[in-house]
Structure formats: structure tokens, C-alpha cells
Specification:
171 residues; seven-stranded parallel β-sheet; 0% helix
Length: 171
């Protein structure tokens, strides 16, 4: 459905288990029916650039999913949950768990990451390299092996998150 969507479309995804790596290369809204029951299982196989969801377009919204990696015998084989490469993205209301990295962002700006549960990832719950003017708020970020939030960049806002049982809270 995502590959057939046009910019501005809303793609509704029914409850179910989807074993795939989703590429969002258009400005769309990708909405799961219910986060606990609309599950995307990404494959990694040692390539952490592979993610359950990769966003390369600007102005993308992702909400209402559980996003996790296929289980492997080594954490180095796990996929990243969400890889955000576009600006002005909104990631909200998701359960992001059991990935190599929960969310990875590289030089993106104006991204909203709100009201997600990000837990039990093998590295950081969230890793932002560069970028600016991002808003990270009202997330429950817990039990990640590395930092809850690892961040570089400037003028980012981090508010009202719950960070518990991570190696580091923000680092």
C-alpha cells in the first residue's frame, strides 16, 4: 500500500503482523489500527541501516504501530526500529521495542517524536546524530542497553519523557 500511495495520502494499516522493511519515500501518513496489534517486524541481518520503517521523505507521519526486529541469535544482526532521514516527520503513539536501535535520526530537523514507548533495544532507545529543532516529548523510554536518548545537534527540545532502567538516561 505504501508504494502505491501518493504524496498527501493517508495509509491505514489493519491489525496484523507484517514481516517487512517499509520504505516511506513520499510525504504520507502511515497509521496503524492499534499499536499493540499492528506489528511491523523488520529484518536486519547485520545491516543496521535496514529498519522496520525507513523514512526518506519530508513531512511523514507514523503512528499506531509496534515496530520490532526479527529475533536473531546475536544482537548485532537486529534491525533498527525507525530510521528517519527526512525533515518535519512525526513519530507518535508507537511501541518501538527489541531492535538494535529504537529510533535513528541523521541530520534531520523539525522532527516530532512524542507519546511512544521505546524499550528493550540492544543499543540506544533513540539516537540523533546532528539535526536541529527536533521535539522529543512525552515518551516512555526504558530498559534500553545503551542510552535512553543519545543526542547531538543543537536547539532540540526534550520535555516530559520518562527515562528508566537505561544504561544512561540522556548521553
Amino acid at each position: 500500500a505504501v508504494s502505491h500511495a501518493s504524496a498527501g495520502d493517508i495509509v491505514m494499516v489493519q491489525n496484523g503482523i507484517y514481516k517487512e522493511n517499509v520504505l516511506v519515500s513520499k510525504s504520507i501518513s502511515l497509521l496503524g489500527e492499534e499499536a499493540k496489534n499492528t506489528i511491523i517486524i523488520g529484518t536486519g541481518g547485520g545491516n543496521h541501516g535496514l529498519a522496520g520503517i525507513t523514512i526518506t521523505a519530508d513531512n511523514v507521519k507514523v503512528s499506531g504501530f509496534t515496530i520490532q526486529s526479527l529475533n536473531y541469535t546475536s544482537s548485532n544482526l537486529y534491525a533498527t526500529g525507525i530510521n528517519i532521514q527526512g525533515d518535519h516527520s512525526t513519530i507518535s503513539g508507537n511501541i518501538i521495542q527489541n531492535n538494535y536501535l529504537g529510533i535513528f535520526c541523521s541530520i534531520q530537523s523539525y522532527t516530532q517524536i512524542t507519546e511512544n514507548t521505546i524499550s528493550h533495544n540492544f543499543k540506544d532507545g533513540m539516537r540523533l546524530y546532528g539535526g536541529s529543532l527536533n521535539n522529543i516529548s512525552d515518551n516512555n523510554i526504558n530498559s534500553n542497553v545503551g542510552s535512553g536518548i543519545a543526542i547531538a545537534g543543537y536547539s532540540n527540545t526534550i520535555l516530559r519523557n520518562i527515562l528508566e532502567n537505561n544504561l544512561r538516561g540522556i548521553g
